[in-house]
Amino acid sequence: MDDWGRPPKLLTLVGLYDEHSIKFDYDWRSRFHIPFSPGVTQTWREAWALFLELREDPSSRVAAAMAGWERPVSHEEIALLDLLDTLRAVNWDPKKGPYEPLPRPWPDPNKTRIGRATRPQSEILAALRARAPKSRPPRDARGRFIKRR
Q1: DSSP 3-state helix, strand, coil percentages of the chain (rounded to 5)?
Q2: Which of 26, 53, 105, 138 is a Cys-bridge partner for 70, taking CB atoms 3.0 to 4.6 Å apart?
């Protein structure tokens, strides 16, 4: 932990990569044209700086995954959805019922959860852990899969 009680940047980045590896790999290759391999193709400091850029961009898969969104969304799409909602709301006929805004990729805070869990959380977590792969396939320094010996 640092002086403010936060985990080190390196551990944060590694933990987030473990959680969202496919999204990291896709964004890193499509935006920066290099594989995500801190310490090999870029320094850890540079990887952290690039991660901060991805985290702030709503059109990146990393930012969408971290925010819990269904999909990434660009600034332009957000603006157009807001504009279209405003236009539709102004021209909405009250006889049709209440106005419903267009869906957004992020969770709606006004929606309530439907249904309830029928099993305890510990049982669900144990089942998920049992289904998880025991180990990841080995890779070389460039991120390519290698044969196990």
Answers
A1: 50, 5, 50
A2: 105
